[in-house]
Design goal:
Structural class: mainly alpha
Protein name: Serine/threonine protein phosphatase 2A 57 kDa regulatory subunit B' beta isoform-like
Radius of gyration: 24 Å
Keywords: Signal
Number of helices: 15
Number of strands: 0
Mean pLDDT: 84
Signal peptide: 1-27
Low-confidence stretches: 232-237
C-alpha cells in the first residue's frame, strides 16, 4: 500500500478541516461580527484559489463552503471588491461567472434582499471591461420580470447604471431588443414602472446613445410614448395626488429631448 507523500495532507485530514469550517459557518452560535475579522477578503481569495485543486472532492467542498458563507455573511458585498481588483485582461472564468452566476441571481423572488449588492457587482464588471455591457443587458432582458412591478423597478434602476458605463459599440449590439423592453415598461399599468422607465432620459449619456442611433430607436419609442400619453392607466389615488401632472411634465420633457436628438 502506497503511503502519502510527506508534507502533502491526505484527503481524510483535509476533509476534517473543511468540515470544521462548515460547522463553524453554519453554527447559530457563530458571531458574525467576530467571524468577519477572520473570514475576510484575503481569506476568501485564498479559498477561491483552491478551485484550482486537482481533486474534485476538494473543489466540491469549496463550493459548498462558499455557498454557506454567502448565506451567512453576504458574500456579494465582498465579491464587489474582488471584481474591482480583477487583473486585466479579465480571465475567461470570471466572464463565465458573470454569465452563469451573477446574471441568473436576478431571477429569484427574493432579489430585493440583495439587489443593491448584486447591482454593484454587475456595474463593476462593466467598469472593468466595457465590452461586457451588452452581455449584462441581454442577460437582464432574459430575466426581466413580467408580473412583479417592484422587481421591474429594480431592473430599470440597474439598467440605467449599466448603460451609463456602456460604449457605443456595445450599445449597438443590444439596443433594439433593449428599447423594445423599455417601451413595454413605459406602457406598464403600474405607474412606478412607467415612471422609472421615463427617468432613463435624465441621463445625458443615455440620451446621447439614443441620439447616435435615433433612426432605429425613435420609431420604437414614439409608438410607446404615444400610447403612454393617450391612455390613462395611473391609479386613482396617484391621480388625486397630482401624479399625472408630474408624469405629463416628464413626458413633455422627453418629447423635447427626443426632438432635439432627431435633429
Amino acid at each position: 500500500m502506497l503511503k502519502p507523500k510527506r508534507g502533502i495532507p491526505s484527503w481524510l485530514h483535509l476533509h476534517l478541516v473543511y468540515e470544521l469550517l462548515v460547522q463553524y459557518v453554519v453554527s447559530p452560535d457563530t458571531d458574525t461580527k467576530t467571524a468577519k475579522h477572520y473570514i475576510d477578503h484575503p481569506f476568501l481569495m485564498k479559498l477561491l484559489d483552491l478551485f484550482d485543486s486537482e481533486d474534485p472532492r476538494e473543489r466540491e467542498c469549496i463550493k459548498s463552503i462558499l455557498h454557506r458563507i454567502y448565506g451567512k455573511f453576504m458574500l456579494l458585498e465582498i465579491l464587489g471588491s474582488i471584481i474591482n481588483g480583477f487583473a486585466l485582461p479579465m480571465k475567461e472564468e470570471h466572464k463565465v461567472f458573470l454569465a452563469r452566476v451573477s446574471i441568473p441571481l436576478h431571477k429569484p423572488k427574493a432579489l430585493e434582499t440583495y439587489h443593491s449588492q448584486l447591482s454593484y457587482c454587475t456595474t463593476q464588471f462593466v467598469a472593468k471591461v466595457c465590452r461586457l455591457a451588452d452581455t449584462i443587458i441581454m442577460g437582464l432582458s432574459k430575466c426581466w420580470p413580467v408580473t412583479n412591478s417592484q422587481k421591474e423597478v429594480l431592473f430599470l434602476g440597474e439598467l440605467e447604471e449599466v448603460l451609463d458605463g456602456t460604449g457605443t459599440v456595445e450599445f449597438q449590439r443590444c439596443m433594439v431588443p433593449l428599447f423594445r423592453q423599455i417601451a413595454r415598461s413605459i406602457n406598464r399599468s403600474h405607474y412606478q414602472v412607467a415612471e422609472r422607465a421615463l427617468f432613463l432620459w435624465n441621463s445625458d449619456h443615455i440620451v446621447e446613445l439614443i441620439s447616435q442611433n435615433r433612426t432605429l430607436i425613435l420609431p420604437i419609442l414614439f409608438d410607446a410614448l404615444q400610447k403612454n400619453t393617450t391612455q390613462y392607466h395611473w391609479n386613482q389615488y396617484k391621480e388625486r395626488k397630482g401624479k399625472c401632472r408630474e408624469l405629463e411634465e416628464q413626458r413633455e420633457l422627453i418629447w423635447q429631448r427626443l426632438e432635439a436628438a432627431a435633429v
